[in-house]
Amino acid sequence: MADVNRRRYHSPLRDAQAAASRAAVLAAARELFVAQGYGRTTLDQIADRAGVSKPTVFSAVGNKAQVLKAVRDVAMAGDDQPEPVTARPDVAAIAGAGDLDLAIALTTRHIADVVIRYHPIHEVLHGAAGSDPAAAELWDVAERERRVGAGHLIERLGRPPAMAPRRAADVLSLLMAPDVFDRLVVRAGWSRAAYERWLGDQLHALYAPDSARRHS
To answer: 203 Cβ partners below 8 Å, 6+ apart?
Structure first.
């Protein structure tokens, strides 16, 4: 019985320390991956930047590929909680909007929030996918998940699009791709507001192609 009690012992302080170490590792890894790329970043560098030991990196997150995946997941979700993006309150609000215009506005805000956080990590994955098998696999997963996420968003808009839902999801997956954000916002200098208005135009076009809204 004593052994069972020891195994069930729970230390809030230890949990808090572990969570703090994990957060420090992920923040350090994101900074280094974005600054110098996945290939040039080492676990020793991550540990040094995070102020922890290399074994702590392994115990808090895992090996380098697992660190990249965790950084990518946090960039997508906005935090390190296990709840999927499609189950978050901002996505649930789209389904509860009760009005297509409002639902589209909420959708464009959600997409912008995600892509702003995720875009730098997308670039890291893109750069590493050609030479690192683990990064290439994660890149493929990210591409598939974006298509699945687009399908969820189409469903949550609550009204059948003017084309087959599957095709509408394909189009939305393209519209919400970080590459599009890169071309319009990073390279062409669009503001976030202009990017969201453009996304809104394209979403309205999926539902009423002949009366898509135009914004200056």
So the answer is: 104, 107, 108, 157, 172, 175
Q: What is the domain range of residue 214?
A: 83-216
pLDDT, tens only, 37-77: 999 999 999 999 999 999 999 999 999 999 999 999 999 99
At 137-148, the pLDDT tens digits run 999 999 999 999
In the predicted model, residues of the chain with pLDDT beneath 50 are: 1-2, 4, 211-216
Alpha-carbon span 74 to 23, nearest angstrom = 10
Residue whose C-alpha is closest to residue 118's, from 35, 65, 179, 169: 179
Residue 198 shares a structural domain with residue 158:
yes
Whether residue 212 lies inside any domain: the answer is: yes
- Asked if 135 and 125 touch (Cβ cutoff 8 Å), the reply is yes
Residue 186 lies in a domain: yes
Residue 96 CA: distances (Å) to CA of 75, 77, 148 = 25, 20, 20
Q: If you search the block for the tokens 């069972």, which residue do you land on?
A: 4
Count of domains observed in the chain: 2
Long-range contacts, 208-211 (Cβ 8 Å, 24+): 208/162, 209/162
Say how far apart CA 69 and CA 128 lie, in whole Å: 13
Judge if 53 and 88 occupy the same domain.
Answer: no
Q: Name the pTM for this structure.
A: 0.87
Pair (115, 210) in one structural domain: yes
